[in-house]
């Protein structure tokens, strides 16, 4: 699954190289993101697991940092990374009695976008749309139901819409919303082996400061 992300990284690097000295504008953003999940699973299966066993994931807040190189006045290549938020899952369905926080993990989610900015440089308001790829790796995985838990990495599409507001030539504010495709196969080994696939379907809302140089 990492091949798709590696290919996009290569494409991103090629864009920057092609821009060369002509790319004079760099944009750095620091902000707060609300990582909201709208998860679905295919159910939890395993020996002794009752039919209808399921789980749902919650939301998390984190800090993000982005770097965008403007390749033309309208098109930019952007890299987004954040502090790994902690995502928790609660038991639902026939195993709801197991309660909250049956599984937790932090997700490292570098994302690459190619953005199209509307308007012109110097405009106070500049909306933009972006499309790209997200790579998610799950770390620090824990479960009160099993001593050994693994979650597969995920590579999938990413799309975003946002707007920049210029306070002056260098500083500004931004707000954006992004949708990501994130799926992971979960295997928990303890007294029995539990399996499920989580489709997180995250929507990420972000707001913060912009610096151009």
Verbal overview:
There is one protein chain. With 213 residues, the protein is mainly beta. It has a single domain, classed as Porin (Beta Barrel), CATH 2.40.160. It has one helix at residues 2-19; strands at 26-36, 40-41, 53-57, 60-70, 75-82, 86-93, 103-108, 111-117, 125-142, 148-151, 154-166, 171-180, 183-189, 193-199, 203-212. Strand 11 and strand 12 (171-180) form a beta hairpin. The model has no long low-confidence stretch (mean pLDDT 90).
Short description:
The chain has 213 residues and is mainly beta. Helices cover 8% and strands 60% of the residues. It has a single domain (2-212), classed as Porin (Beta Barrel), CATH 2.40.160.20.
CATH topology type: Porin
CATH class: Mainly Beta
Mean pLDDT: 90
Provide the CATH architecture.
Beta Barrel
Main sheet specs: 8 strands, antiparallel, barrel
How would the blueprint of this fold be written?
Layout (H helix, E strand, L loop, with lengths): L1 H18 L6 E11 L3 E2 L11 E5 L2 E11 L4 E8 L3 E8 L9 E6 L2 E7 L7 E18 L5 E4 L2 E13 L4 E10 L2 E7 L3 E7 L3 E10 L1
Antiparallel strand pairs: 1-4, 1-15, 2-14, 3-6, 4-5, 5-8, 6-7, 7-9, 8-9, 9-11, 10-13, 11-12, 12-15, 13-14
Q: What are its keywords?
A:
mainly beta; Porin; single chain; 213 residues
């Amino acid at each position: 699954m990492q091949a798709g992300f590696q290919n996009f990284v290569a494409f991103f690097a090629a864009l920057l190289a092609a821009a060369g000295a002509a790319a004079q504008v760099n944009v750095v953003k620091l902000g707060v993101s609300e990582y909201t999940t709208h998860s679905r699973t295919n159910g939890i299966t395993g020996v002794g697991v009752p039919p209808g066993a399921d789980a749902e994931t919650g939301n998390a807040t984190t800090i993000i940092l982005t770097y965008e190189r403007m390749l033309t006045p309208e098109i930019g290549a952007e890299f987004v990374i954040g502090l790994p938020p902690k995502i928790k899952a609660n038991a639902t369905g026939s195993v709801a009695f197991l309660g909250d926080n049956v599984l937790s993990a932090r997700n490292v989610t570098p994302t690459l976008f190619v953005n199209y900015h509307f308007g012109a440089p110097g405009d106070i308001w500049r909306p933009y749309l972006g499309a790209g790829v997200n790579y998610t790796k799950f770390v620090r995985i824990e479960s009160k139901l099993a001593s050994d838990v693994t979650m597969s990495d995920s590579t999938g599409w990413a799309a975003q819409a946002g707007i920049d507001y210029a306070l002056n030539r260098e500083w500004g504010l931004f707000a954006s919303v992004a949708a990501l495709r994130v799926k992971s196969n979960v295997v928990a080994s303890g007294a029995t082996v539990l399996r499920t696939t989580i489709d997180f379907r995250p929507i990420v809302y972000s707001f913060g400061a912009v610096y151009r140089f």
